[in-house]
Amino acid sequence: MVMALITPLALGLAGCTDSAAPVPAFAPEYQGIETRLLDGDLVNFHVTMSGARDTADVERYSECAAAQYALIRGYGFARHLRTNVAQEGGIWQGDAVYTISAALPRGLKTIDAEVVAANCAENGIPMV
Q: Of the residues 75, 90, 92, 126, which has the maximum number of CB atoms within 10 A of its CB?
């Protein structure tokens, strides 16, 4: 009698396997970077891409642009001030502002331009 109760339960649990739908491959299309020097060390980056998984991919793209821009200008660091991200019709746009500097700036959202640029190159993310 106990076996009769266990068998349907066991059969029901047998169907509970980890069969999550496959995650699509990440295939971003980086569509461009516009750079605007706002004032001295204050720089605005507009990036456009499709295939982003979420806002973090767009933010990373703008961070790569900021890192390379800092290096081109002879600076070693950047500090993130803000990033606004919007998505419409599968096209993602980021509007980010960074300061660039020769010395490590104050703040929590600072980046070492050489390290970030190397990581971006390694991951195939285009830069300025």
A: 92
Question: Between 113-122 and 55-72, two packed helices, what is the crossing angle to 10 degrees?
Answer: 120
Give tens-digit pLDDT for 5-42.
444 444 444 555 555 777 678 899 999 999 999 999 99
CA angle at 69 for the pair 77 and 57, rounded to the nearest 5°: 90
| pTM, 2 dp | 0.80
The Cα–Cα gap between 79 and 26 comes to: 28
Tokens 């821009």 sit on residue: 69
Structure tokens at 98: 């960074």
Separation of alpha carbons 5 and 15, rounded Å: 17
